[in-house]
Amino acid sequence: MIPDDVLASIRERTDIGVLIGEYVKLKKSGASFKGLCPFHNEKTPSFYVHPQRGFFHCFGCQASGDVFGFLTRLEGLPFPEAARRLAERAGVEIPEGDPRKDAERRRERETTERIAQLLDEATGYYMKMMGEHPHGNLARECYEGRGVDAETAERFRLGYAPDAWDRLVDLFRQKQRSPRDAEAAGLVVPRRTRDGYYDRFRHRLMFPVSDSQGRIVAFSGRALPPAPGSGDEQEAPAKYINSPEGPLYTKGKLLYGLWEGRVSIRRQGWALLCEGNFDVVCLHQHGFDNAVAPLGTALTDDQSKLLRRFAERVVVLFDGDGAGRKATRAAFPHLADVGLPAKVVALPQGQDPDSFLREYGADALRDRIESAPGIVEHLIDEAASNSTGDAAATADAISSLGPVLKRVSNPVERRLYIDRIAQKFGVRDIDAVRQQLRRGLTQQRPRRRPEPEADAPIEDARPRQRAPRRPIDPLQGEVLGAMLDQPELFHTPEAEKISHVLTDPDLRAIFQATSRQVGRRGGVDASALLDEIRDMGASWWLEERLAVQLHEEVDSARRVLADVVPRLEKKAREVEARQLMEQAVAARRAGDDALADRLTRERMALLRGVLRK
After folding, report:
1. Which of 16, 129, 300, 440 is geometrically suited to a Cys-Cys bond with 252, CB 3.0 to 4.6 A?
2. Residue 522: other Cβ atoms inside 10 A
């Protein structure tokens, strides 16, 4: 349990405008900033951020909250993880309650910070070498030949590792960086025959790999044509060299391009899953900026869980060859186990997303994505197309689909898929098809479905249930909004009048809660205020009103009060007079003339006051 004062300190030290600005392009709009909402597709900005109040709100999808709410919602993080990440960012230490654990955690953080700094410095160095080194043009020609422009290359921070053994080693030596930290970062390798280190990456196009926090944690280096003067007798290098796993990097837990595409994935609701680094970069170049890829491995459970935090569904776009088809089959159980619906785009034989885009264009790929079949349908069709027509081969192909259908939980869907299998393989006996599918399950034991995690991120990312929206009196809302914009007015005589003219119970509760908050803290804490009135029917109004500041000057707010409060007082007297009249009529009917006369005199006095106003 993280103490409230620590959470408050994290919130105070985190500029919500800067945080959200790393995900969304924001433009100044009065005291707020606005931009396209990262949580839903929209063409006109309806997403507002109010840095002073530490609050965001979307007038389109009604998403709102503070820095914690933004991070948990956008990245699907459980609250404790979001709090730790923001604490690290803000330089706030979250106590573990055990001095030894606190010290150990502090040491680990200091180590990872040093390693992250080295990786960031290496990224800058490789980017600089792309432009300054005599052979950097070979790296540029490599990506330009794929149709990637300079802007996209800069966005992905592509660089060039020079054809030398110790350029990076010398750079770190000059900066007095620890060679052991550089080794832990996977940037240098210890020499076998003598002391010292040499550069791991040499004469390669460098693809930095970011984690979900945007930190560079690893590199993937692609081989380039031999540099002039290097000689032709050299053995052909490996096409890719990747960083070894280390304190910041586990390849089976990250996805290339997720940091660059996270907002687009969240906004669109789906991700395009491809195979390689260049596929991701080229897809982003052509407008598919929700593309991601595993890092030199088949898709893993951890990568699927990570993807599930951002996406509601996936479109698989692997290469149109045997390896791509095999990768699609291997990806299905991982996606199914985390509940990610998937479709599959089948590319022509021998093509990958990059070559398809260059030959047919982005519109052709969009058409294929829109008409893509579900992954189960794709696997059924593929198994049928690979069947030779031989009876034994047909039976084996049907058996291979048993583990696939086992993961279809909906009984209606499963029945329809069984019918499709029978039709595709030309088997009329449905019971025989079922029997063969069951046989496939005994031949290949299915992977055990993982138990739901105690703090499943996708559940934590869901917005809280709100009370039903109800109309708010516009005049009362205008007055209370002016007070919220200029909280110092809660210390003035006007505040006493307003507490009487707010007849709406929810608005009065908001007024009272804000007044207490201003008295304690001297200002408005949007997050705390919303937590206090979350279950009220006016919570929607408060969320929208806190997102914008209509009165940036106190005199502007005072003018609203001077204009509107008398009108509300008059309206309140008219309501009270009407109630007195109804009570007087009721008293007259009951035969209590004395009470009826007294109520009538009170009503007339009220009306005279209204007329004088």
Report:
1. 300
2. 11
